[in-house]
């Protein structure tokens, strides 16, 4: 990058502004089209290096109405929240440009600079690696990311502090750093060098060059959005469909009194285990229609107060959700202050219905397994247990249940023409489920395949699996 | 209500469940249709009266996947936030049912019960009145509201506290009230009687009756959603179009050096005034296309850091916004932690473009003036200054600017076929603006009509008006 920067030339302001506006409108017009993109701009750096001024100048050259700016004060990481959680909502939609002053890197720096709890370098680097993976996922999903570090030498910083207008000091209190302290300055510079090799460094010394370099680089980023096709290597290897999916066990009917007693014991134990666990709990259900997701969920919450949990029923995405990365609507549903979150269908829709119906193309769904694994690992790293169920029913049993639903008054709402249509693609779903199970069964978020031809056994098995996973860790 | 309750009869559970599910699905199917509704259920009451249990039972009778539950712990009012602000996001969309345990009434009770700052009765009653107006606006905009107070006698409460399972005590810490204190109990009961006459009172004594009464009342509410046509009384009185709109003054061109000097002085003063003001500032712009909204906004933020303000450019609502009250998207944009919020077009769209294009029917737009006034009064009551501008341009000047835009490279994006179409309805817009100005010019949120045929004078006038309103109060 440095070589390029040294070659950069000041260009006529009006010309620059015109090019920026043209690029901005081209981006805006892309919305809903196959080449749709959005632009995320992360801005961090040394205090008084001119971040604010450069963005301000940019806003004057662009059409300011279509440039959003988000400026959260840096926050210390807390261990119940992924690094992207509080920013997820602000990920720009197709056609939008978003500048983030506060971002995951400024949070990381704040956390690492906090004197009482120094962060070791391995952990710091691990965070950086996870952040880059997250950004790669954004890019693959049409959110361009470009990162700017505004730099300023120690000497210039001190000079600027000397001449500071006291009425403007308020911004400098935000970062909780003492910019008069050379040691802090040096540690910060050392730390940021651990991540800034894919950042564009803007020297804050000269104001005009600073603003132009910043704007020119953004122009380049918007104009030349690369296409990120991180295609899977080699031919797709279809996983074999496991026996448990082909022939779900149908255990003998349980004795009713026994079942009731055991159900009561287990529901009580599950609610206590979830309450006592210091972690949040995410329970995810997938499976064919009528496999018993609703019934299983009902038993999980049986002994809970309705204020203790949230059930998310996932259907087709809304239009505004479609203009963001497909995982976006799930990022926003994960709430650090929600103890128990149950998903009736999940983010696995990408590799099930979207794969089968062609809503996601081959490159997209084949890439999604890794994206999902990263998502679940981030959750797991931030004190959230992810418990995943595939409810396995046989094709015959499904037919029986469909027919029963059509004949039972309070169940007939549960069955639609679409359910019958999905049934015709039974084998496709089995194949997709097999791939999913083999590629996303991880140590931190394992799958539980539960046979549901016998409803009662299935419900008990689900509860037992929850207990097992909560205690196993 | 009491009479009805005494007459209520237990009905067969399966029957009740079936009716509830049918009503729920009918509501769900209404989405997007002309009879679309949503159901908001507020739940408050005495501790241990069984609110949680009743909702739990309801969730078992209904299809739990389409019943959302929100349970915020009660919060004290803070004076930078309207009472509805933190709940706005959870207002249910068409077809949805939402139970709110934490709600504006529980916040009001918490605030009033806080010993160190007792609230006088007049203020309490004023809050209640504002809350009812807000609920009436919700109802008029297809969000049904039904309120339940779960009651329990002092004696029964004490008995239940005696036999409490210690492992379940956690819910009772939430309310910060000492339920062993008879005086507190009595004050709470006295307070809630000041608002509960339009609530359904559920006696928590008998569990079965409690759950059935609650569920039956909700069934009734969903089945018999009344149509709220609070039509304006009498014939619509079209306001006369004021001279300032018909013939906006075109003052002589300013001396350029003078203008620049004064502009610099004013932009500096405006940014300081907004920063120093202890209140948040909302600045709202309306006016014909090309009247100079963008240019005025540019000057307002001239001396601000981009992190200090937010610009909202308002276009057509998205689909998910259309399934809520029309003001909803603005409720959600008002952020108590955002100091300066600038709206390029506003909630007045309801009585301008929506009125003229027929997106809102006569009853809806005629009702909107009062709704808007209430919204702005709530903002004003919670320490937010609302500064509103109508930028008045003449039809000839607009034509000149449209043509200039088409010929200027970096402005041609600003002009579309729609702008020319809107121009054909010039007189309709003038009439609508006249009605708007005469009906929503209030002491707490006055309009500033600024003539913009001369751009420079207009920009200075906008800045002066901001200064005037900020100091006048």
TrEMBL record, chains A, B:
Gene3D superfamilies: P-loop containing nucleotide triphosphate hydrolases. GO terms for molecular function: transferase activity. The keyword Endoplasmic reticulum does not apply. Pfam families: PPK2 (PF03976). Residues 249-276 form a coiled coil. Residues 18-221, 255-472 form the Polyphosphate kinase-2-related domain. InterPro entries: P-loop_NTPase, PPK2-related. Keywords: Coiled coil, Transferase. This is Phosphate--AMP phosphotransferase.
